[in-house]
């Protein structure tokens, strides 16, 4: 039996994301006032994705509690739709985008923090908030994957969805550069057009790999549990 019910964990995680988002939006940084605002940063988009995902998780738990034993077929159909949406969001957005943000941020940060998170930002963003945006995303999504089984969509539709998201964000970044003459991320200023194409292509491939990793990890966790129960 779990020490903390997964429903309680989801509420706690949702509240933590709401707190992180509120604190982040309250910071008056020059970049927030420029074209695209906070929405030009993948970190902020990911925080919104995670908050919406865990909001759907909490709503699903409440709906499940309210419909339990009611025998209302319409309510049960609506609950199944909600569960399908929850599972789709984890598979296509919450897991691959969340893991991507954590992995890429800390890899580039370790190489040269000025390329991704200039030291100047320490004057605006406290350390705990930085970790809330770039670190805790990973354990939170792994906790969710470990505590609840999620049905993945067909591989072709899932990969098509994550490719659409990746290409859409790349086009958004390029559009911002077209409008403002500035790249969203400092390191893009220091590489040539060819290197940018390679980087953008590599990030799309990485997103697809992370989708497949999530699918394999989800299957491994729950197949292992089912095997253990049969023994």
Automatic annotation (TrEMBL):
Pfam families: Far-17a_AIG1 (PF04750). GO terms for cellular component: endomembrane system; membrane. It is a multi-pass membrane protein. Its main location: membrane. It catalyses: 12-(9Z-octadecenoyloxy)-octadecanoate + H2O = 12-hydroxyoctadecanoate + (9Z)-octadecenoate + H(+); 12-hexadecanoyloxy-octadecanoate + H2O = 12-hydroxyoctadecanoate + hexadecanoate + H(+); 9-octadecanoyloxy-octadecanoate + H2O = 9-hydroxy-octadecanoate + octadecanoate + H(+); 9-(9Z-octadecenoyloxy)-octadecanoate + H2O = 9-hydroxy-octadecanoate + (9Z)-octadecenoate + H(+). Keywords: Membrane, Transmembrane, Transmembrane helix. InterPro entries: ADTRP_AIG1. Belongs to the AIG1 family. This is Androgen induced 1. It comes from Canis lupus familiaris (Dog). The gene is AIG1.
